[in-house]
């Protein structure tokens, strides 16, 4: 059931969307080229070595302060917040996620929403924005009607830092020497399974394997991945230009992006203008990239995910962080409420590679998968890397998946296919 109050703020914002003319050359995408190694010497990067020092939100947390903050959220709000460990980084740092949900969600499941930030370790504006969003939602529950209704209706998952080794490359006490890559010097946003056939240059990194396992055990319907280096809303696809293969929900995405940008510009009219005037763009129209998380989430998990580039500088002066929060706070909250405004289509993707649906159940499954009728052709099962892991003959009706690791698989039979989750 939709909660009308969730849309009170959204209703006052223009909801129409129109195609826009590009009025200036596109700013180069921050992840279009390999970055040069640099130290953030010219930045005023103040660090908080205690939770109390984060009270004004004008500092970056040390790694230990980050851990203490996440634990503190769960300790202060045990009925609303739990901290999940998604996994660990190459160097053993924790990848954490705050799970904010009303207690009745266990009996009456709510739609699941996911925010994630800083997969590029030096793009840390989103890191602090996500920590402050957790704090704001929890402290607003019971006193702010919009936040209360939102938490009562949606299970909200927020992962503030998905590449801790990159962020704390110079040690746990500073982000001054942060780098884009993980400890293996791999770009995590070029390291996801690509649904359109491009193989990653590097083997799947530990951080991404943990993230894939985590999202495979949930049913996120809407998500966003926060980056920095530009200010623009970037919607799928990243792997194609809109002329080559437009996303089937492109008009919906444009309307959502426009609402986000308009809300932010209510508080700061200069934001989201460094790439184009509209403040949003199809990813591939900006710069085509393969093996990104955005396309992976949309294709394999039927989760509508976009990329939010929220600051022109990757590592902003810490004193500027409160200003970014003032510009973004309401738009970030309203974006969560968009989960009640998803397109009516049941699938987020319709691509040439997705053929007619293969009818099979149960899905997800822990062991066996049953077809609605005997297969008219041989059956092939592929993992997310495109490797065939199982081949069964024509006439098969039952597929035993017990020996396969949990994850996402593509089951193909002739011209028919289905995505299957093995739990």
From the structure above, extract its key features:
disordered N terminus; Aminopeptidase; eight-stranded mixed beta sheet; 423 residues; Immunoglobulin-like; alpha/beta; five-stranded mixed beta sheet
Note the topology.
Elements: H1 8-11, E1 47-48, E2 60-61, H2 63-76, E3 81-88, E4 94-100, E5 112-117, H3 125-140, H4 145-153, E6 155-159, H5 164-167, H6 206-216, E7 220-227, E8 230-235, H7 250-267, E9 280-282, H8 283-286, H9 293-300, E10 304-311, H10 321-337, E11 356-357, E12 360-361, E13 368-371, E14 379-382, E15 388-392, E16 398-400, E17 407-413, E18 416-422
Parallel strand pairs: 1-2, 5-6, 5-7, 7-10, 8-9, 11-18
Antiparallel strand pairs: 3-4, 4-6, 8-10, 12-13, 13-16, 14-15, 14-17, 17-18
Structure report:
The chain contains ten helices and 18 strands. It is an alpha/beta fold and 423 residues long. It has two domains: 338 residues, 3-Layer(aba) Sandwich (Aminopeptidase); 67 residues, Immunoglobulin-like. The relative contact order is 0.15. The N terminus is likely disordered.
| Tally of separate helices | 10
Mean pLDDT: 87
The beta-strand count equals 18
- In whole angstroms, how far apart are the ends? 28 Å
Helix and strand pattern: HEEHEEEHHEHHEEHEHHEHEEEEEEEE
CATH topology of the largest domain: Aminopeptidase
The CATH H-level superfamily of the largest domain is Zn peptidases
Indicate the proportion of strand residues.
Answer: 15-25%
Overall structural domain count: 2
Q: What is the C-level CATH assignment of the largest domain? A: Alpha Beta
**Largest β sheet strand count, sense and barrel closure:** 8 strands, mixed
Which value, in Å, is the CA radius of gyration? 21 Å
- Estimate the global geometry from the Cα principal axes: globular
Point out poorly predicted stretches: 1-22, 346-356
Helicity, in percent? 10-25%
Structural class: alpha/beta
């Amino acid at each position: 059931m939709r909660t009308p109050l969730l849309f009170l703020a959204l209703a006052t914002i223009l909801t129409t969307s129109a195609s826009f003319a590009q009025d200036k050359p596109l700013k180069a995408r921050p992840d279009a080229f390999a970055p040069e190694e640099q130290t953030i010497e010219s930045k005023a990067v103040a660090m908080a070595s205690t939770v109390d020092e984060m009270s004004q939100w004008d500092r970056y947390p040390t790694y230990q302060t980050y851990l203490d903050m996440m634990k503190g959220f769960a300790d202060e709000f045990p009925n609303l917040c739990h901290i999940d460990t998604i996994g660990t980084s190459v160097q053993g740092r924790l990848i954490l996620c705050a799970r904010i949900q009303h207690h009745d969600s266990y009996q009456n499941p709510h739609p699941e929403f996911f925010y994630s930030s800083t997969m590029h370790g030096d793009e840390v504006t989103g890191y602090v924005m996500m920590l402050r969003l957790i704090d704001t939602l929890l402290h607003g529950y019971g006193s702010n009607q919009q936040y209360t209704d939102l938490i009562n209706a949606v299970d909200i998952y927020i992962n503030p830092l998905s590449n801790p080794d990159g962020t704390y490359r110079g040690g746990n006490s500073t982000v001054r020497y942060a780098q884009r890559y993980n400890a293996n010097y791999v770009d995590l946003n070029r390291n996801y399974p690509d649904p359109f056939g491009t193989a990653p240059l590097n083997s799947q990194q530990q951080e991404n394997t943990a993230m894939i396992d985590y999202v495979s055990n949930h049913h996120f319907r809407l998500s966003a991945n926060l980056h920095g280096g530009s200010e623009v809303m970037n919607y799928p696809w990243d792997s194609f230009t809109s002329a080559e293969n437009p996303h089937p929900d492109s008009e919906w995405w444009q309307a959502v992006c426009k609402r986000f940008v308009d809300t932010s510009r209510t508080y700061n009219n200069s934001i989201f203008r460094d790439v184009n005037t509209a403040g949003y763009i199809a990813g591939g129209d900006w710069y085509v990239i393969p093996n990104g998380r955005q396309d992976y989430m949309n294709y394999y998990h039927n989760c509508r995910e976009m990329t939010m580039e929220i600051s022109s500088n990757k590592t902003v002066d810490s004193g500027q962080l409160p200003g970014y929060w003032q510009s973004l706070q309401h738009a970030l909250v309203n974006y969560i409420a968009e989960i009640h405004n998803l397109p009516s289509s049941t699938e987020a993707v319709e691509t040439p590679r997705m053929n007619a649906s293969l009818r099979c159940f149960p899905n997800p499954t822990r062991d066996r998968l049953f077809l609605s009728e005997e297969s008219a052709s041989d059956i092939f099962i592929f993992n997310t890397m495109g490797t065939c892991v199982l081949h069964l003959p024509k006439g098969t009706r039952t597929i035993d998946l017990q020996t396969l690791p949990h994850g996402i698989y593509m089951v193909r039979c002739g011209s028919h296919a289905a995505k299957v989750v093995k739990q």
